[in-house]
Amino acid sequence: MKFLDEAKIFIASGKGGNGCLSFRRERNIPRGGPDGGDGGRGGDVIARAIPGLNTLIDYRYQQHFKARPGEGGMGQQRYGADGADIFLDLPVGTQILHEDAKTILADLTHEGQKVVLLTGGKGGHGNLYYKSSTNRAPRRADPGEENSEMWVWLRLKLLADAGLVGLPNAGKSTFLSSVTRAKPKIADYPFTTLHPQLGVVHLDQKEFVLADIPGLIEGAHEGLGLGDRFLGHVERCGVLLHLIDGTQEGAVEAYHTIRKELSAYGNGLAEKFEVVALNKIDALTANEITEKEAALRNACGKDVLTLSAVSGEGVKSALRALMTHIAARGAPKKVCKPVSEEGWAP
Asked: Is 162-329 a CATH 3.40.50.2300 domain?
């Protein structure tokens, strides 16, 4: 299933049904009173968050969603039926924004949440409604209320307990594949990962969701390399695992580059708890590991973990560090199996 995290769609509620102008006409009743019924109410447009979805791909191929109009009233005091509502089934974590792509109309943060985006038009009154003691034969019937319509943006921000960040080729996808059953594409060149990936980590009879986003570059917060969209997927993570490629020159510069982008993006990313880890130590000597670890510790002012996603050395220590912070914020959530571009990961 292909991953899609943004889509633009057109939505329209239903128009209200017209009221009916009618009089009772039966044999031996020459002066029957008004009997025109009211029109039905138009359908609403309702967004709802359902489990089991992690992509907006369905909204790439269908962009127009219209609720049914209400039916018109009829004679013999018959009222028109209400129009059927239309439901937009969306993944948990989806934001619905106005056409300007800035104003948030709704934020679906938990399963089963429903939000009415557009309300259907009210049905018009038939002439029976206007009958009174002083107006026995009203000839007034109202048209149904017009519907509402607009374009909206759907933007998915994945819900995960922990997120992986780092420069391209820092080993994030290798780490994800080594600790979960997700199958991200792995290769020895930058930007191998083009879409966010999710996996479930099982550790010490507990589990938590880990998100991997494509590598960030300088200027990511301004949209370079689609970085602003990728950063949105770790906004809701409780803790970040910052992986740094130990085989590259300038590990400290790499750390500062990512920290600068997190701060510039805002939305609380720079304030999130961060676990810093030097990756790919299987390709380094003991002296190189000690030297780079000390340099990173001085740069970030905290302990730095060392690990190798390939050999598995230090991986469990990193996972336990993440789990400790996740548990402090609340029990890791039980989740449905998240989908990645490659398939399902239990």
From this structure: no
